[in-house]
Amino acid sequence: MRECLSIHIGQAGVQIGGACWELYCLEHGIQPDGVVLDGGQDLLAPAKTEPTRASFDSFFCETRAGKYVPRALFMDLEPTVVDGVRAGSYRSLFHSEQLVSGKEDAANNYARGRYSVGPEILDLVLERIRKLAEHCSGLQGFLIFRSFGGGTGSGFTSLLLEQLSVEYSGKTKLDFSVYPAPRISTAVVEPYNSILTTHPTIEHVDCTFLVDNEAIYNICHGKLDLERPSYASINRLISQAASSITASLRFEGILNVDLIEFQTNLVPYPRIHFPVTSFAPILSADSTHHKEPSVSDITAACFEPSHQLVRCDPRLGKYVACCLLYRGDVVPKEVNAAIAATKLRNSIQFVDWCPTGFKVGINDRPPREVPGGDLAEVQRAVCMLSNSTAVAEAWARLGHKFDLMFAKRAFLHWYIREGMEEGEFAEAREDLAVLEKDYEEMGRSL
Amino acid sequence: MNSTSTSDVIGRRVEVNGEHATVRFSGLVPPVAGLWLGVEWDNPERGKHDGSHEGTVYFKCRHPTAGSFIRPHKVNFGVDFLTAIKNRYVLEDEPKEEETEQIVIIGNKPVETIGFDSVIKQQSQLSKLQDVSLRNCAVNGAGDKGEIAKACPNIRSIDLSKNLLSSWEEVIDIADQLKHLEVLNLSENKLTSPSSSPSPTGTFPTLKVLVLNRTGVTWAEVLRCASGWPVLEKLYLESNNIIISERPTDVLQTVKLLDLSSNQLIDENQLFLIAYLPRLEQLILSDIGISSIHFPDAGIGCKTSMFPSLQYLVLNDNQIAQWSFMNELDKLQSLHALSCTRNPLTEGSKDAQTTRQFIIARIGQLRTLNKCAIEPEERRGAELDYRKAFGNEWKKAGGHQDPEKNRPNEEFLAAHPRYQALCLKYGAPEDGELKTQQPFLLKNQLLTLKIKYPNQHDQKVIEKQLPVNLQERSGMLLLGLCSSNWGRPFPLE
Q: CB-hemisphere CA count at 13 Å for B361?
């Protein structure tokens, strides 16, 4: 019951997916070939009461042979990245039908991902998803991993999400999106792709968790002593956040938060669904056990901009709602005390019309780190999802870059020649402007 | 548990308003009436004196302001282990929704029992606990014998840092009852050294990770207790002012990770004493003030027998300023990851890229530097650049492309032990590669001229530097003399 399908789209989605499933396998005691370690993850049988397998089933499907296969689909319009998974250390974990790749990529072009190259592979992808859904007794929803800036991540995802809404109406769709880093750009046309994808998908997605490479790069460089953070390090950090968010779905906890609860508690209006993700503690593996942050330490750290996975300053905005997902050795008493202390801090302002705004989830499974990872293993960790008006800053930045290029109609012909029209650009930009206005409205006092 | 009779109380660890201390005295301190406790604070500046009052010495402290007299009722002696666990982990009684009544027959009469469920629930909660943290929970001991084993036998990992445990015996009392204990954190407790007889082996039969940061433990004490840790894999001893005084012969042989960060009294010679731990794979030596290292058993280009299994070495925040340090690290047989940020060698130089390249080139088997993997292309580029950078020096020291004539001197070989190997790998550097390109600066385009008056011998010879473009008409040099003393041109030889 309560199964979740993860769909990883484009290079970013696939690579983050690799890091996520590696971490999930470690947490559940599943080896790279899908077999559970002897004795399962609970080495002490008397401590188990009700079957914990039930939650584990939400992400892994048990085959008749006793192997556990992830409920996931990896796809990209060109083969290189997915081939990396096919040849990597986790190749025996996935069934070959779960790894889909085309021949010609989207070349950082939304129009190719959506209108020309994407549709050719759409039917195949939908069919594979159908097969995965057939193995689910009570599909709860989808988790999509992708980037805004790439062609496949932006174009193909918007196409796919529209179809999923039709075929699986009523199922939740959550989106982990890599937002284009403000100062570290991998493609000049990122702003175009990001805004073009946001416009159609905003109605089809229930909640989007934004992460940006620059914020994570700074975390890796500043807090983790990494001289030159690689994408592997960045993806590992993102996978920790994703693991915290999905922990409630995969393990029984004292206070569970499932997919629908996120939405109910974080999203005040359907379009305002872009919470900022923060994570704490972030300690270098070389300093393991030098510090053991307490519940109040990690709660306070979440509100610092240096722990955010997206660059924006919530101190300049107002919080609408916060969801604190604790894992590890966390006692409800301490959580209450930490939250009470937070409410007293002046720098943390909530909107007038939503004074309480804290949703708490506690999972007693301790946070794990992959061997050779950069983070220290700690006893407790927290991932905070906060819906704050400060996110409008991130959209404004993107909109500004879009405007600069669009005013000159720069790079536009690449999109036009794949079948798009200028009107679509204008429409998308309009939509974003409305979104910014909506955020502004929200922050205003009653 | 609040007996304050003298014999029980001396040596006990206590807490007063968040500050920890050790009781050193209990009794009367005239002229003020009443019982006083004399304590020595952990924080040496917290107290008022060193244990003496108006001339009489009541107790001794290590520091002149570490002592105080306090009334017994102000002092928290702590609670036992089980009480602390219940305080933290047992959920407070929730308002009951339905009072479940159970009818029990006692002596022919039906009797209602109410509330048993919550007790059963509490107990089952404790027995499920595996990873427990009692940090700063004022734990002072094990409590009644056998109670821990009954209530929470499944504990695998426990954080007992910053508590009021005062002796190893108390720790053993607790650990004896936890048959599955794998991880134990005792940081920031001040434990008195165990009695001279070694603790019976098997006390910690499953313990894999032991954390003793900031406990003030000495190396000798560690080795004495270590016979009770037969399967220990990770040992953390950060900030203890440790001086490694002896070689661990039969103990610590299973240890894979050793953290000795921030022990400023460790020097390179002490490291030899831990150089033969057979399984040691990771050694953390951040912030110990080390600046040099030398493996005497290995000559230039040879491998040392010390630290045979060491794969990952952490040397951040030290005083390494010489390249010879990196040369020595090349002698380690198994080293393939190194972290050495924030050292004078890496901080001072403006070009971080070159420093990284040189470290890579000097340590041949390194696969990861500062947590960043070294791809084969990076290694190739680094080694080629290094070979080129020191090519002129090599030639001056006697190096030559012709292997017959190639005889660089000892000094060069000592400074660049891998140079010859790199020449074998990539070939000796060509002369063309080694010509240093002078940057196009004006000063490099100047010609120095000595001007002598042929007819006036008393005038000094003047040297002037003048910009000259030699590619202009051959032979003719046009001089522009800017000195005000000269007004007229004159012939040049």
A: 29
E strand or H helix that includes residue B396: helix B391-396
Contacts of A324 (CB under 8 A, 6+ apart): A299, A302, A335, A339, A358, A359, A360, A361, A382, A383, A384
Read off the pLDDT of residues B40-98 as tens digits, 9 standing for 90 and up.
888 888 888 888 888 888 888 888 888 888 888 888 888 999 889 888 887 655 444 44
**Residues on chain B touching A294 (C-beta within 8 angstroms):** 135
Split at pLDDT 50, 70, 90, the class of A44 is very low
Query: How much of chain B exceeds pLDDT 70, in percent?
Result: 78
Domains of chain A by start residue, with CATH: 3-37+53-394 (3.40.50.1440), 395-444 (1.10.287.600)
Write out the H or E segment, with its range, that includes residue A238. helix A231-250
Cβ atoms of B425 and B383 within 8 Å: the answer is yes
Helix or strand (DSSP H, E) at B325 = helix B323-329
How many A-B residue pairs are in contact by the CB < 8 A criterion?
Answer: 75
Query: How many angstroms separate the CA of residue A336 from the nearest CA in chain B?
Result: 13
State residue A124's pLDDT score: 95
What gap in Å lies between CA B286 and CA B367, rounded to an integer? 20
The model carries a pTM of: 0.82
Q: Which of A62, A214, A252, A261 is catalytic?
A: A261
- Rounded to two decimals, the ipTM of the complex is 0.82
Count of residues in chain A: 446
Q: How far is A260 from chain B (nearest CA, A)?
A: 26
Active site residue A261: yes
Residue A369 is encoded by which pair of tokens?
């780190």
> With contacts defined as CB-CB under 8 Å, which chain A residues touch B261?
287, 290
Name the residue facing A228 among B131, B211, B372 (closest C-beta). Answer: B372
Q: CA-nearest residue of chain B to A289?
A: B211
